[in-house]
Amino acid sequence: MPYRAPGSPGHSLQKSLSGKPIASYRPTGSPEVRRLIDNGFQAFNAARLSEACQIFTDRMLAPEHETTIGLTIAGAMTPAGLGGCVIELMDRGLVDFVISTGANLYHDLHYALNFTLHRGSPFVNDVELYEDGVIRIYDVLFPATVLLETDAYLRDFIVRSGLNEPVATSEFHYRLGLDLIERHPGCEEHSVVARAAGAGVPLYTSSPGDSSIGMNIAYHELMNGGRLMIDPNKDVNEVCAIVLAGKRNGCVILGGGSPKNFYLQAQPTLWEIYGIPKGGNDYFIQITTDSVVWGGLSGATPAEAVSWGKVNPGVLPDTVVAYCDSTIAFPLFCEYAVGSPNGRRQRKELVHHRDRLVAQLTREAKASQEKRKSEVSSVNSQVSTLNSQA
């Protein structure tokens, strides 16, 4: 095992990693939390979070609406133990597909492989951590060997999988999740990647090269001559196909960044590129700390998204942005949802229907293309007739 830094891990290493292990938190539907959110969160961003909880449980999860729900995850949620909330939502059928940064899925693997991340302090000496081989994500601390051993597992999996062609991130993560379940029985109780495979929930990464998972795929191509690569075209079309098939569509956005836009761009892709007017999302919930005034994607409001065709202009009352830290607000949101009367739905298991949905998208896109060609031909014919008469 290569050693990443000079020095001899010893007492200081033990001290750095003396904090409590970070566990995967699973919400249980606390009635006290529901009472707090309904009755205590009355104004400002507390009221926005309460509104988000009510839109999700009363509208998005209403059985008669049959909403297809996407969850997007930015930031570092899994290292903070919030993967358990995602697992609970997937188990209960409360989210149908997930778009995440690759980092969240990579660090989720530490839990699947039974490594320990520790609570710590953001006010430590990072030079000492480096010399002792300790990684820090704000106040989350763990040995650098966790990265090295997770990387080794990924490289072995890629060879073992036999994958040797361009694939969607959903396919890669599905195969990875099944491998985890087979080799580490029970890990699906605290691993998003493993549980998603078991629950049939597609996992997408909007920027696959921007994580250690992508780095290990790149290693495989360079060192083994493999032809495995992530095909973003497949991801774009699969997400568009899922959105197109939804009777209603809604999203829960944690943070923002590329996962947010990767989900929201499905609607413009349908109407702008494929000529299929879907009408925009019916529900939009975002928890973010980014302000709209900077002009950044993460702060872009549902109202702004209307102009792009990302949000249906008739449903703005069913959209909300809560300006909160997701590590605080999301567990509360999940406690509220799990304890609601609509806190369980039949899972769609969309990972098993991707080919069928993409085939449907293809048929509709080609029909739209033929219709546009016919309309252009008709207009050209009319112009030619008028010119000949003149």
Q: How are strands sequenced across the largest beta sheet?
A: 7-2-1-9-10-11
CATH level-4 homologous superfamily:
Deoxyhypusine synthase
CATH topology tier name: Deoxyhypusine Synthase
Number of helical elements: 16
Instruction: Label the overall shape.
Output: globular
Cα distance, first to last residue?
84 Å
- Number of extended strands: 11
Biggest sheet statistics: 6 strands, parallel
Question: Order of SSEs, N→C?
Answer: HHHEHEHEHEEHEHHEHEHEHHEHEHH
Q: Please, how many domains? A: 1
Calculate Rg over CA atoms.
23 Å
Please identify the structural class as seen in this structure. Answer: alpha/beta
Low-confidence stretches are none
* CATH architecture classification: 3-Layer(aba) Sandwich
Please identify the top-level CATH class. Alpha Beta
User: Which whole number gives the mean pLDDT?
Assistant: 93
Percent of sequence in beta strands:
5-15%
- Could you state the oligomeric state of the chains shown? single chain
User: Which range best describes the helical content: under 10%, 10-25%, 25-40%, 40-55%, 55-70% or over 70%?
Assistant: 40-55%
Short summary:
The protein has 390 residues and is α/β, with parallel strands linked by helices. It has 16 helices and eleven strands.
